[in-house]
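[stage:ingest] chain + small molecule (S-adenosylmethionine)
[stage:ingest] validated
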Amino acid sequence: MREPDASQPRENAWTVETGLLLWWEDFYLPIFEYVLPEMGALEGKKVLELGTGTGGTATLLAKQGASVVGIDLLPFRLDEAKERAAQHNVANAVDFSLMDATQLAFPDNTFDFIISKSVLVFTEHAQAAKECCRVLKPGGKAIFIENMRSHPTVWLYRKLFLKYSRELHYFSLRDVEAIGREFEEMEHREFHLFSLGALFWKRIIPIPIFYRWTLHILKLVDKSLLRLFPLLKRFCWITAMICCK
Ligand SMILES: C[S@@+](CC[C@H](N)C(=O)[O-])C[C@H]1O[C@@H](n2cnc3c(N)ncnc32)[C@H](O)[C@@H]1O
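[stage:predict] done
[stage:export] tokens:
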């Protein structure tokens, strides 16, 4: 398994269109900046998005020239996703289908890339990963952005307010490594320890400038802490895995 150097920025920086993100998804920007350059130029590439939800990521990738298939288990989400793609004039480049990520109805070696965000936690991880590996072309990459189990504040929030979270399979570092074993190669990086503290200014006392600055500073604090004390990775909120077939 490749261990990335968290301090190194990636080449080929992508600009993520923030209008396609939901309110809390500022937190996903550094994650997109880590994973999207892995895809390189998307013109003519076939991409599968698992659990597309409202289709933000599928639309973002279609706008970069990819031909995208977005799947989800909820028909109303697929309707929202179609509308979103149409609003951004990429309806022709995205196909949305009702399908289970653990039983993909595609032939082997179909896609150049697969991406999912907060979806594997709803599934049996190994089964979804096996299916992804099967439908990826040799040399293709699967990118999984997932929620981790042990961030203390997030853990408490889930216990108090998210009753359904008991059913979900949040990731430990061991689970991340198990995903890696389904592929030829994998690297992963973990994000957000203290940076979640910025939500105080976003949700409780909404002062945008304090939010932006706190987020910026706490992200730098997290980066340094994770570099100095890699054991802290297990307490992060989000993990991003880049898996190669
Ligand atoms: C938390 S939402 C994330 C949506 C989207 N990826 C995003 O980041 O905005 C999880 C989505 O995964 C879908 N989902 C859950 N289990 C699934 C499965 N086995 N196959 C396909 N989609 C699934 C849900 O219906 C939901 O739309």
